[in-house]
Structures are given as structure tokens and as C-alpha cells.
Amino acid sequence: MYLPYVFKELVKRKGRSITNLLAVTVLVALPIILTSIINGYTTAVYLPFQDVGADMIVQKSVTSADAPTGSLRLPFGRGLFPANQVSAVAAVPHVAAVSPALALWQFDNGKFISIEGIEPTSFVGTRLKAGIATGRFLESDDRDKVVLEKHFAKFYSLKVGNNLKVGDATFEVIGTVAVAGESQVSAQNIYMNLADTQRLLGTADYSQLYLRMDSLSSENAVRSQIARLDPQAVTTSANSIATSLSNAVSIYQRFQVLGAAILALIVAFILFQVSVTGLLERRREVGVMQTVGWTGKNVSRQVIAEVVLSTLGGCIVGLGASAAAVSAVGSVSVQANLPGSLSNDLTTLSAPLALSLTSAVEFSVFALVVSLVVSLFVVRRLFGMKPLANIRN
After folding, report:
1. Closest CA to 384 of 293, 273, 296
2. Integer Cα distance of 358 and 257 in angstroms
3. DSSP 3-state of 96
4. Domain boundary among 175, 204, 236
5. 284 and 165, same structural domain?
């Protein structure tokens, strides 16, 4: 009884149908696109930590450093943590695990090489081991053995079984490891046992601490405690990287509820105007329906069917527009200072954009609910008037 008349109304009043379709399309598309972009930024700032398996990285910043006695040295502006400080950091509340490391730079014959000594059984070593490409990974009792980042090995034509000179010592290449391009924190050229790097530098200390926390919400408390232990300590995490991104992400997260509410009010007003205009155009038609015996329930069902069809159409078009926009943009890029960078220059992190099915469903349901509520409100008001009043107007 209703569907033929519904389709007839939608086709007959093309202007109203297209307006409703566009209103719902905008309501669905804009929030989905915005959510996809913000999710992309959030993914990008966490990329450097994904392949390391750490929640925070602690380094020591110093204004000067001892001049290197050979080709090996600490990274510029970095200091060392003695063993007692490492133990103190491990005892900080909410720190679940600490993986100490020693990063070195080698400048030899115009060639720069980054080196990191790690504990193979630590969570950092376990994560790197998962990316082994050829050969094998380091073991705790290995000495004078190294694993190379695969692109570094390919560039210098180094293979498993070759010998490589680092400082005044010679090391055997036992494997190559693949590190994701976005994970610059862990992308060193050479990995070796921590004891070997300490021997090369002539120290028993550490330059870098990888931390895992029992709760990311405790990050600020952990950072404050570490600052009390050592004022020169510099902590880096995904949140601290996000803070450096002109606060765009944090501002959105803080005001996203308010923004969603404002957007909802604007769209609700648009839908209200569209619905009121469309239904007022049909006052004469509603009056005739009343005269021939249509009840309020009959008219409500008619309107609900029209609203559902037009809203679903708008949702489909909105999803299509969102997918096209996200596909056209492709990815988002952010720039931030990373602890593994070779200088203080900004490093570009990129993450692909992807539609959120959850957001798509939420915004589509919201559009449908708003349209139904507004339309039913107007219909009830119109049907509350006398048939003659509706026919005359």
C-alpha cells in the first residue's frame, strides 16, 4: 500500500528528494573523513614505537661530550646512564620492564654507521628477532658477532659469513633483519650484543632505555618520576610526539565531543528545515488524506518509509564520497623529532588513511534517527490541524 506511493513521491518531488539526499550525504561524509584523518595522525605518531615494542624511550641530554678517541663515539648531545640509574628507573611505579641499550656512531673514511648494542633476550631483542630476514639473530653468549639492517647490508654488499670492522675490532655477520621504514627509532645499521658495544666504547653504562609501562595512562607520572631521578633525562613517547604536531590532534581529542554536538545541531537544523519545507508543501495533500480517512498512523508510516529510503540513499552516497576522498588523499604525514634520528632535524612519519566502519555505522544511524525524529514531529503537528485548514493552506 505504501511503497508505490512512496516511490512516486520521491520521484515526483525531485528537488526535495535531492536536497534530503545531499543533507544526509554531508552529515555522513564529513565526520567520517575527519575521523579517518585523525585516526591516521594517531597511527603515524605511534609508528616509531610499533616495531620496537616500547612505550617510552629515555635518553640523557648533555650540553657537551668528551671528544672521541677513535672513529666511535656517542651520538651528539647524548650522555650515559650508570647501572644504578637504570635500576632506579626500573623501580619507578608503572614501569613494567626496562631494556637498556648503548647506541654508537662511527665515522670512518667519510662513512657514517649507526650501531646499537642490545640484550637479545629483552623485549626489544625479541621484537627485532621477529624481523630476521637471513641467517640468525643474536644470542646472549655471542661475542664479536653482528646482525645488519637488510638495506644497509644490501647497499654495502654484505652477506652472512662476511667480516665487518667496527672500531678496532672485527665482527662476523650472522644475519640481516628487516625493520619497517616508519620505525626510525629502531632502524640502526648494525646490531650487536650490549657487552660488545660497551667494550668498544670502554664503558659499563647505557645511552638509551626502552620502557614498557603497565598502563599508558600513567605516562605523565612515569615521566615526572624519571625527571626527578635525573633532570637531564629526556623521555620520548607517542604522546610527546603528538604534542609537537602543533597540538592539532590533542585539540581535536579535547573538543571532539563539543564539535560533534555542534555538527549534530547544524545538521539537525538543516534536516528540520528540509523536512518542514517539504511537508508544508504537502499540507493540501495531508488535508485530502485526512478527508478520505487516512489516520495519523497511516501518514506517519508513509513519511517513515520516505525518510528511511532517502536517508539510506544519502548514507550510501556519503560512504561513497568518504571512500573517494580518503582514497584521493591516500595518507597523512607528520613531522617530529625522534630519538633515533641522526640529528635534530624533523623526521617525516606517514600513515595510510582508512575508513572506520564503526564511525560509518554510528554516523549513518545518527542521520537516520535525526531524520525520523524531525519528520515525525512535523507530521504530528500537521495532522493535529483540521483537514480544512490544511487544504486551504
Report:
1. 296
2. 16
3. strand
4. 236
5. no
